[in-house]
Amino acid sequence: MSYTDPTGATQAYVSDAELMAWLEEKSNLQYGELRDAMNLSSERIDLIKRLSVLKADMQNAKTVDDFRGVRDEMMALVHDTKGTPYAEDMSGLFGDAIKAMDHPDDDQQPGECLKADKATVAVLKASIDVETDNLGKIDSLELVQIQQLVSDAKETSQLASNLFSSRDQTANSIVGNIRG
User: Fold this and answer.
1) Which residue has the higher pLDDT, 37 or 118?
2) Does 142 have pLDDT greater than 70?
3) CA-CA distance, 97 to 54, in Å (whole number)?
4) What is the C-alpha R_g of the chain?
5) Using CA atoms, how far apart are residues 102 and 38, in angstroms rounded to an integer?
6) Of 14, 29, 127, 139, which alpha carbon lies 20 to 30 A from 97's?
7) Is residue 2 over pLDDT 60?
8) pLDDT per position as a tens digit, 70-83
9) b/e for 127-142, b at 16 or more Cβ within 10 A?
């Protein structure tokens, strides 16, 4: 806040309570951003793991039941990512394959179409590789942002600590001069 000194000049002054309130507000914002960034990074890592498991399951699938399991995993990924930044990517990646598996030719059971169509499986595996690489790159960039947020939070705390320390030294100096 400010006050007017005896000469009539306006002086800026921030009380300890105002400084603490500012520190609390600033810290809450910074740690909120940090928490959100870390949660998003964790979601990305989980998605990468799930995509890797799905790719391995596709590679190991031999029977119609195996491919039905793959279809179920794809459907779960699409469902679980709804409302997240990855929803569109997962829907685009697996939407057509899920439809093809759910609506096979008249003489096929669900799952048989992917068992028979090795080219589609190869394309899906390659697409999963591209998606996991992209997610990994995004996560690497996000880790840089997380490091910056941690650094900013430390700087904020250090600034407040320095201000309190400076005030304490000034008060002790004044008391020392008065005692004389």
Assistant:
1) 37
2) yes
3) 13
4) 29
5) 36
6) 139
7) no
8) 889 999 999 999 99
9) bbeebbeebeeebeee
Question: How many C-beta atoms surround the C-beta of residue 54 within 10 A?
Answer: 20
- Are the C-beta atoms of residues 125 and 59 closer than 8 Å to each other? yes
Q: What is the mean pLDDT of residues 82-101?
A: 87
**DSSP labels for 38-63?**
HHHHHHHHHHHHHHHHHHHHHHH--S
Q: Is 2 helix (H, G, I), strand (E, B) or coil?
A: strand
| Tens of pLDDT, residues 9-32 | 666 777 778 878 888 898 899 999
The Cα 1–Cα 144 span in angstroms is: 36
d(CA 68, CA 114): 9
State how far the Cα of 71 lies from the Cα of 101, in Å rounded to an integer.
7
